[in-house]
Predict the 3D structure of the following.
Amino acid sequence: MTREDRSQTKMYVVDTNVLIHDPSAVLNFEEHDVVIPMTVLEELDQLKNGKQSVAADCRQAIRTIDRILESADPSAIETGVPITRGEKSAPLGTLAIGMARSSASEHQLPEHLNDNRIINLLAELQKRHGDKPIILVSKDINMRLKARGFGLEAEDYHTDQLVDDVRYLPSGYHEFEGSFWDRIEKVETVQRAGITEHLVPRSEEMEDYQINEFILDQQGFIGRITETEPERLVIEDLYRDDLMHQQVWGLTPRDIYQALALNLLMDPDVHLVNLTGSAGSGKTILALAAAIELTVASKDYKRIITTRSTQGLDEDIGFLPGTEAEKMEPWLGAIVDNLEALHEDDENMHSSVDYILSKVPMQFKSLNYIRGRSFQHSLIIIDESQNLTPHQLKTIITRAGTGSKVVCLGNLSQIDTAYLNSLSSGLTYMTERFKGFKHGGHIHLQGVPRSPLAEYAEENL
């Protein structure tokens, strides 16, 4: 990089929460300089011990920083060590450890808070480097506000934000007013093994259509895209009555969107199903009914593994008595609630639920104990996945071994995790990244079938 190019680079000061959110964050600033304040290293050190998810992320972040700085001398670490991302790739950007040189009396914010120490370091770096832009990167909104109030630049970590508005996320289906076929000039229809397929030329309107998405029109046509080519789409003809009357462990879909979700859940060639929707739209009960059907009736999978992430789960699980499964039960009450709903018409609902829990190979797992595991021939349900970071969700999905299926459930309007929003959620990241994956599918459920009260509350509160 020439001197002129270096003069155009920026200096990013990275906050602790960014490294917890993405332990490889220091590698994602391209040609720009990255500074890790000494205060951030101290915070990582305090959080690195234990089996919690945050501790594992801290350890990985520390290892990433060490790998870049391991052979550098102290002066180079202070001024900046070139960041090498691969053995054959040229270094791009630098990484430095930032430590304040000024005396405490020269700092404008009191140094009893770690946030203040980082902001004071930013102000000092701005004085040292003159006109070079110095920018704080933090997931903490209040930290960014404090920095801006101090006259410094601050921004969120946007590297894993793939969309600017969640309304642009794919829904998993395309709805047409009138007839879908009115828009098609030419179609070739073939019969194959009892399946009707339509070969449709790809128009400009269909440019972004992906495999395993559905097409619905007001005339009753429902099709699923099974192949995508640059010039055409292959659409499997589905029958609305068959979809609406399918029964999975006694559960019948209440609307066409639930029917589409069951179509993906029951397909053995779809290894990742992502269900989003409002509270009460049926995400959990659909996933649970399909999971029991596929393990007990058809025996496609050997066991069901259910987990979820909630605020406080990592910290609080250790204080609950009993085994891992017993500790997880309070957090996975939604699973038991939906089991009761599936068997509410039985003569003795509680006996039916107890029987299912004793016979179905269902395991409740804490996220803390999933790292390093490999689940073979398992159906993995991740509830409340909107509370996971992209890095955490990747950690779980990569645990799926041979013959396993992963079902992610979430509502992007109900995020409880600090420093996450609908744009930075791992659920949003995964939905966007996996579109076009031939073994994956996504459905955004509509409506709130739980009850008229739940529907009114979702719309008006």
User: Anything to note?
Assistant: Residues 53-69 form the longest helix (17 residues). The radius of gyration is 26 Å. Residues 272 and 440 are 5 Å apart (CA to CA). Confidence is low (pLDDT under 50) at residues 310-318.
